[in-house]
Amino acid sequence: MDIDAWVWWLIGAVGLGIPLVLTAMPELGMLSVGAIAGALTAALGLGVVAQVVVFAVVSVALIAVVRPIAARHRDGRPEHVTNVDALRGRQAVVLERVDGNGGRIKLAGEVWSARSLDADQVFEPGQQVDVAEIDGATAVVM
To answer: Nearest Cα to 28, choosing from 17, 36, 38, 42?
Structure first.
């Protein structure tokens, strides 16, 4: 049984594609695309040297071009804060006197229990406060 070279290249592409799916390493996908380019080169009847050169050039070009673009998009993406992390740094209005022992504030349209960050600091109703952190269901304000 004599198998054409392009079939071997496709087998190599699949062989590189399987670990890509299992490990999520995009470099393996780029090598797989290079193997497909090698298969096309073999299907056109070019020699083994040309096939290997096309495989290497396409693979290296994809890794050199696509990886930096993907890294830029991954690193440049703004981080979306949610839940209590989104409340840190926001302003709130004191509803009931807030001191080191407790009190109530209106934060993001909801009433929260609160305490002051500095145990000696006292905030009276109507004052604006900044949320330093969320401790369980209590906003720590300053």
So the answer is: 17
How wide is the angle at C-alpha 91 spanned by C-alphas 90 and 97, nearest 5°?
A: 130
Mean pLDDT of 108-124: 92
Tokens 């073999």 locate to 42
Side-chain-side CA neighbours of residue 20 (13 Å):
14
Q: Between the CA of residue 35 and those of 39, 41, 86, what are the distances in Å?
A: 6, 10, 46
- Return the closest-CA partner of residue 95 out of 114, 74, 121: 114
Is 1's pLDDT higher than 70?
no
Structure tokens at 14: 């699949």
Six token digits for residue 6: 């392009």
Beta bridge partners of 106: 93, 111
For residue 129, the surrounding DSSP H or E stretch is strand 128-135
* Unique residue bearing structure tokens 């070009």: 61
**Residue 123, number of CB atoms within 10 A of its CB:** 21
Output the pTM of the full model: 0.53
Instruction: Judge whether 125 and 78 are in contact, CB under 8 Å.
Output: no
Q: What is the rounded average pLDDT for all residues in the chain? A: 89
